[in-house]
Amino acid sequence: MVDQVAIGINGFGRIGRLVCRAALANPHAKVVAINDPFMDINYMLYLFKYDSTHGMYQGSVEVKDGNLVVDGQTIHVFSCRNPSEIPWGKAGAHYVCESTGVFTTTEAASAHLGGGAKKVVISAPPKDATPMYVMGVNHKEYNGSANVVSNASCTTNCLAPLAKVVHDNFGIVEGLMTTVHAFTANQLPVDGPSKGGKDWRAGRGCGQNIIPASTGAAKAVGKVLPALNGKLTGMAFRVPTPDVSVVDLTCRLEKPASMAQIKAAIKAASEGELKDILGYTEDEVVSADFTHDKRSSIFDANACIALNDNFVKLVSWYDNEWGYSNRLVDLVLHMATVDKF
């Protein structure tokens, strides 16, 4: 592991702030710069320090000379609208977390390279063919050739490790995924026009409705696990909870397997090659039990059912904010071992 990889963050929203917290908590990472043209630095400090879901930041945070100082470490703060104008190079940021939700193609995110960044990791599924990497699934395929990559979505990070274990052991013929997903910042608290006005249901009040939604998370598994390409698709239900979501994978197996065999394979993976990424529990858990859980996916053994030995429903939880943010930092650290800047 390389020492202290320097990270810059563009966009200080939910994911940007939690990536910052995750990086600060990791001894191998350091945040050297943050860019957000729409937020006053004192408001940055406030939103970073106080979090309604994940609690108050326990370290010291202050504003000094136009920068944030967190636990004695200076983080440069910029307010550039054009990514190419952000002085990442001068701040010493080799890797940029692109978490605005705006620059989600290689062409758009490459603008950060003009400011001196060496690599960009998009904290969302890309809108083009930008390579996606999911820790524990295909991250070892990163060879340093791409300057812009994607950390996929939080749901793909939950589903892909589970699907990989099931497919490696029993083979997935086909499957449907449903994610029961916590509401997010792009939804509305009361009824109103949705962003873009195309998805009418998305504009309904998120605090009082279960809202069906589309998601590309299942299809994206086929991008990180080519053996499953075209075999999975899915949808989402957005529900009135602030954090923690759950994936239901209903699939047909190539090799017949009892639920006990499936559980044993997933448990073994959670204690072996996917330790700290895929979890396993037999406890009688609910969503709140996974708030601030760093793992990508926690398999709920007692929530799973089988129609027969070839047709099963598997359930796995994830903190769609904190788990994902930690994986993004992990991906950056892995990239650094390959890039060796």
From TrEMBL:
Activates thiol group during catalysis, annotated site positions: 181
Name the SMART domains on file.
Answer: Gp_dh_N (SM00846)
Domain (Glyceraldehyde 3-phosphate dehydrogenase NAD(P) binding): give its ranges: 5-154
Q: Name one GO cellular component term.
A: cytosol
The EC number on file is: 1.2.1.12
Under which pathway is this protein filed?
A: Carbohydrate degradation; glycolysis; pyruvate from D-glyceraldehyde 3-phosphate: step 1/5
- Pfam families from the UniProt entry: Gp_dh_C, Gp_dh_N
**For this protein, what is any one GO molecular function term?**
glyceraldehyde-3-phosphate dehydrogenase (NAD+) (phosphorylating) activity
Catalytic residues (positions): 154
Q: What does the record give as the reaction this protein catalyses? A: D-glyceraldehyde 3-phosphate + phosphate + NAD(+) = (2R)-3-phospho-glyceroyl phosphate + NADH + H(+)
- Any idea which UniProt keywords this protein has? Glycolysis, NAD, Nucleotide-binding, Oxidoreductase
Chain positions recorded as D-glyceraldehyde 3-phosphate binding sites: 153-155, 184, 215-216, 238
What residues does NAD(+) bind to? 14-15, 36, 81, 123, 320
A biological process term (GO) from this entry: glucose metabolic process
Spell out the family assignment given in the record's similarity comment: Belongs to the glyceraldehyde-3-phosphate dehydrogenase family.
Q: Quaternary arrangement and interactors, per the entry?
A: Homotetramer.
Q: What is this protein called?
A: Glyceraldehyde-3-phosphate dehydrogenase
Organismal lineage: Eukaryota, Sar, Stramenopiles, Oomycota, Peronosporomycetes
